Amino acid sequence: MAAHHIEQFNQLEWARGHHQGNFQEVHVVTPPQLLKLCFADHIPAINLMVIDVEGFELPIIRAWDFSQCAPQALIIELRDLDTEFSEEIRQESVQILKILEQAGYSIFWRDQTNAILTLSSFPSTSPLSTLNQENAVTF
Is 72 in contact with 125 (CB distance < 8 Å)? Predict the structure, then answer.
């Protein structure tokens, strides 16, 4: 989890104590490296991509090359509507939304924590197209 997110979570009543301060270094790869590792030179169409990277959403979105690979739908954690979080964290989510909108995505559904975004070319015959606020499952 990003350090500034840990600090913020430790200030929230419901999240206090979840992170005990234990850190572990892990090998990371950039989104382009990940795509090359998984798919070599032929990147297939991706229908759905879920980004849940504990505070590192903005660097992932900034590094993603949507001209090379644009999933039809994205699920991502956003904190811009959650007033329990700092302005810094909320602004990260605003930046994420701007980048995704510039890449051709629009919000299909969201709550205070998660958002589903789709490309304008998302097929209207998709099972997801029947989802609305009344029958949506809150993550």
Answer: no
Mean pLDDT for all residues in the chain: 81
Cβ atoms of 75 and 100 closer than 8 Å:
no
b/e sequence 122-131, b meaning 16+ C-beta within 10 Å: beeeeebeee
- Position 36 confidence tier, pLDDT thresholds 50, 70, 90: confident
Q: Reduced to 3 states, what is the DSSP secondary structure of residue 126? A: coil
User: Is a pLDDT exceeding 70 seen at residue 58?
Assistant: yes
Residue 89, SS3?
helix
Contact 76, 27 (CB under 8 A): no
Check whether 13 has a pLDDT greater than 70.
yes
Q: In what order do the strands lie in the sheet with 48-51?
A: 48-51, 73-77, 114-119, 105-110
Tokens of 29: 């790869």
Contact 104, 66 (CB under 8 A): yes
Spatial distance between the Cα atoms of 126 and 24, rounded to a whole number of angstroms: 40
Residue 25, pLDDT score: 79
What pTM, to 2 d.p., does this model score? 0.74
